[in-house]
UniProtKB/TrEMBL annotation:
Self-association state and partner proteins as the record states: Monomer. Associates with the 50S ribosomal subunit.
Organism: Streptomyces synnematoformans
Pfam families reported for this sequence: GTP-bdg_M, GTP-bdg_N, MMR_HSR1
Main location: cytoplasm
Gene name of the encoded protein: hflX
Protein name per its UniProtKB record: GTPase HflX
Length: 539
């Protein structure tokens, strides 16, 4: 296993102002869970046991043992000699107090622990050691963005992740030592793990294990501001959680626990015959998901209407796309003077922002900021954020922003283009904007400029290159096609303004009858202007 030094991460190491107790990593908070299952874990009446759902005696014992082995801090004393860690584990178990029984902490509840001191682990299947290091550096940036302190990071060279424990089982034990040594309380894996892998690895390292998907979901949950953004994140979280609800312990303990009259440990299936707690939870989650989907669809309609309106007014649209933290929002601010949240953190922007901007020749266009892309964006999120990305698919021009100071800008370009392909936006013309030219290596800038035919180096911070970029946007934006000549009466001043903003004025003179215009305009405006054609008036 290769130990990766923590070094320059993508974000400033200073980022995570300790945010104290963090919400679930990738899953739902207690309140969300309660809302989902429509019961308050603190107050819900204890479930009555139902005899017909009890397991036969022998099975119960086995199940008990399994659950015990997995949960009880005492039961693994042989592997768990460290007092510090034991305290940590006691703290982990504390969450049980939120629920009705100790044993049946669902994985969801389990995950709502603090994510504070983390060790990163990656499986390095292809590429160079440098690639593996970059990948882990990005994971570190993600973890820091979520508010965690990264203590250490390790990668293992393997053909593919171990189906049981992600890294090999021997390495998992080594990882366990690192966790103990650094007093970490969480392990973050650089990939999407199956529910089984998460459980097995947790079993070995004895601290919470989360994967990259969960981490990204968590960041998204922290950052989403608008109603639509929040709904999309919630939907993605549920999607992620659904298969993981099956979690060990959960269904078993729910089924086996029915002994008592409801005190801790007794909470057992409360549902009617044939439906276990987990099935009910799952059904309720599915119902919530369906509801969210309907709500999102309705919100999307609202946005579509606005977009169509812009289209109807023939205002060309430019979408800013790019890897997270590339400087998209900074560029939007530079181009429009708008105050959009700029933060040295990943996924600072999660809600689409649309602003008006003007080309040097005075043509109006709209400029849309978009959510940042990241390698292996969890699939649910690509789905959930498709609507945001649609802004990109519908644009007349994409400004593809790439961070020129990043260690692997080419990879960023590739991953963003994958998403652009995903949302069927490949036919939209693209300008590659190589940002952060002020701190990028000149060699890297030259390399990128050579590689990309339609590229420009800028600095959103200093403003270098921004005027050139504006001029380039002017050239690349679609132009109105119809050439007209009209003499618009002075009483129709609004029409003249429209020609200025929606079309391109070639010449303008003032006659006794009105404003004499020669201009390029779109068909609809041309139709209105034909009424004032000088020839027509002469007739
Ligand atoms: N040195 C330098 N830093 C820049 C430049 N442009 C942006 N930054 C910094 O890069 C960080 C990210 O900028 P943002 O504009 O928030 O990036 P973004 O692409 O919108 O990021 P997300 O919304 O998180 O995906 C901030 O700390 C900016 O100050 C630049 O040209 N030069
Ligand atoms: Mg942004």
């Amino acid at each position: 296993m290769t130990r990766v030094r923590r070094r320059a991460t993508i974000v400033d190491a200073a980022t995570p102002a300790v945010r104290g107790i963090l919400p679930v990593c990738g899953a739902l908070s207690e309140r969300q869970t309660a809302a989902l299952t429509d019961k308050d874990p603190m107050t819900s009446p204890t479930h009555l046991p139902q005899d017909d759902q009890r397991l036969p005696e022998g099975l119960r014992a086995d199940a008990l043992m399994e659950a015990e082995a997995a949960w009880s801090p005492g039961s693994d004393a042989d592997r768990d000699g460290d007092q510090f860690d034991r305290e940590d584990r006691a703290a982990l178990r504390r969450v049980a107090g939120l629920s009705t029984e100790l044993e049946d902490i669902t994985e969801v509840e389990y995950r709502q622990l603090r994510l504070e001191r983390v060790v990163l682990v990656g499986v390095w299947t292809s590429g160079t050691a440098r690639d593996a290091g970059n990948s882990l550096a990005e994971l570190a940036a993600l973890a820091e963005t979520a508010g965690a302190v990264v203590l250490d990071g390790v990668v293992q060279r393997r053909d593919k992740p171990d189906p049981a424990t992600y890294i090999g089982s021997g390495k998992a034990l080594e990882l366990r030592d690192i966790v103990v040594e650094s007093a970490a309380d969480t392990v973050v894996c650089d990939g999407e793990l199956s529910p089984g892998q998460l459980i097995h690895l947790e079993d070995v390292v004895k601290v919470k294990v989360v994967d990259r998907t969960a981490l990204i979901l968590d960041i998204f949950a922290q950052h989403a501001k608008s109603r639509e953004g929040k709904a999309q994140v919630a939907l993605a979280q549920m999607q992620y959680m659904l298969p993981r609800l099956r979690g060990w312990g959960q269904s078993l303990s729910r089924q086996m626990g029915g002994g008592g009259s409801g005190s801790a440990g007794g909470g057992m299936a409360t549902r009617g015959p044939g439906e276990t707690k987990i099935e009910t939870d799952r059904r309720r989650i599915r119902e919530k998901m369906a509801k969210l989907r309907r709500e999102i669809a309705a919100m999307k309609t609202g946005r579509d209407v606005k977009r169509q309106e812009r289209k109807r007014h023939h205002v060309p649209s430019v979408a800013i796309a790019g890897y997270t933290n590339a400087g998209k929002s900074s560029l939007l601010n530079r181009l429009t003077g708008a105050g959009v949240l700029v933060e040295n953190a990943l996924f600072a922007t999660l809600d689409p922002t649309v602003r008006r901007a003007e080309t040097p020749s005075g043509r109006l266009y709209t400029l849309a900021d978009t959510v940042g892309f990241v390698r292996h964006l969890p699939h649910h999120l690509v789905e959930a954020f498709r609507s945001t990305m649609e802004e990109v698919g519908d644009a007349d021009l994409i400004l593809h922003v790439v961070d020129g100071s990043h260690p692997a800008p080419e990879e960023q370009l590739v991953s963003v283009r994958e998403v652009i392909r995903d949302v069927d936006a490949t036919s939209v013309p693209e300008i590659v904007v190589i940002n952060k030219a002020d701190i990028a290596e000149p060699d890297v800038l030259r390399r990128l400029l050579r590689m990309e035919p339609r590229a420009i180096a800028v600095s959103a911070s200093t403003g270098d290159g921004v005027e050139e970029l504006k001029a380039l946007i002017d050239v690349e934006l679609p132009r109105p096609q119809v050439e007209i000549e009209a003499e618009v009466p002075y009483t129709k001043g609004a029409l003249v303004s429209r020609v200025h903003t929606e079309g391109e004025v070639l010449s303008e003179a003032h006659t006794a009858a009105g404003t004499l215009l020669k201009a390029l305009v779109h068909e609809e405006l041309a139709a209105e202007l034909r009424r004032y054609a000088p020839a027509a008036r002469a007739d």
